[in-house]
User: What shape does this take?
Amino acid sequence: MSWRWFHQWGSPRWFYERAGRWQLVCGWLALILLVVGSLWGLGFAPVDYQQGNSYRIIYLHVPVAFLAQAMYAAMAVCAVVLFVWKMKLADVAMQAIAVTGLAFTVLSLVSGAVWGKPTWGTYWVWDARLTSMLILGFLYLGLIGLRAAIQDPDQAGKACGILVLVGVVNLPIIKYSVEWWNTLHQPASLKLTEKPTMPASMWMPLLVNILGYYIAAAYLVLGSMRAIVIGRERRASWVKELVGRA
Amino acid sequence: MSIEKRMLARELKLAAARPGDIFKPMWFLMLVISMVPLALSPDSVLLADIGSAMIWVATLLALLLNTEHLFQSDFSDGVLEQWLFLDRPLAWLVGLKLIVHWLFHVVPLICITPIAGLMLSVPTDVLIALLMTLVVATPALTCFSGLGAALTLGSSRSGILGVLVMMPLFVPVVILAAGVLIRATDGSEILPLMALLGAFSLVAATLVPIAVSAAIRLNIGGSN
Amino acid sequence: MLEFQFESLMAFLAMAPHGAYVWPVYILGLLILGGLTWVNLRQHRQAIRLIKRQLEREETHES
Assistant: This one.
């Protein structure tokens, strides 16, 4: 088997040129999926008999919360790639994902809180999911702060890599301990998702939106990565050539 | 004299030369504890209810206060660089440093928590449970905050960043310790939770020094 | 299956009784996704502007 597909990622130039095209495809695809999924969820999915129309927030909340967690895992994969293969692009990806992941975490926290107002009667409840999401947000914030504090990008990348790996080992422990803590203090509250039986007319638009947000996240991360790559490689000859030609 | 013994002797001398470093976090702890009745109410029933949790949080903060610059002086006077040339794994030396730090700077903190407990009228059996959780949990906390200190070594403008970065990782320890305290207040069995807390602490104390040594190497070796 | 759940467009926009919760969340989502896109584009443009300036400086230096 040829390893060419993998080694290509070591070349910032190769990535920068390809990523522009991928980004375009991802952007339009995400836009179409999100418009379809959101309108479907907002207007065409049946009303929930318990929660009324407020449940329509889940068509944004669930995919975003899901992605916020998935992106931390993706960062851990990047950290492993960074340490094992010394691939600089993995560090660029970590930097891009940290910012995007924090934005998604904040969005999921706010949407969860707003959903809580009509459902629980208050904006903030120390529910297990909300709490572990909050901790996840602090972890993302720490990564961004650490990178900002260290001047040398290579050194900052490795420091962030160590932090991500320590964080990803701890994240499941944090999640389970928060869940346990929640049962310790209050009876199981109304869950944000996990309807016993969700009819297809309800989960189909959710599926479309999950896919849409996934691709949107890819679009955003790729865009951020391109900007970081060209900024870091500004002294490389291919960048000068590229900019000089334009 | 072996390297370990010499390291220990050096740490002892340093600690003796700077007693303020040991004293100040204890001072801070007592100040925070004195603020609680002032901010809440001097009602002893109320204080006894939240007392153990307050002492836990105050000890946590005091521990962070003195671990923040754990490696700073060794870094600036070049001792860490010397460590790289010793015929010992860096993680082992880091672990030793963390243990010594725990003994000299964290154990004194734990020793004064009973006084804080009396001031907040925490019942005796809860106080004993509190002491046990602190003894069992602080090694993990020391290791994590040591990692924060090591990660931010190279940057002069990091401030309390090391603390901010590491604090989310304290969550499981705090939750387990709080669980023990709640059970101690109820009078139910605390041993299983203590064992879990101890297991977490042991695993952290074994694995985190490896991450700390990687962070130190990073700050000394630059990009290699 | 695909049946519009509201009687009119106004009812859809009102989304009684939870319109005040649902719509702001979706608007915020739009703002965050759009904001990130804008930040990325701006960062990209800034990087390119920086490189251009550097190139010009090098050219004047050589000549």
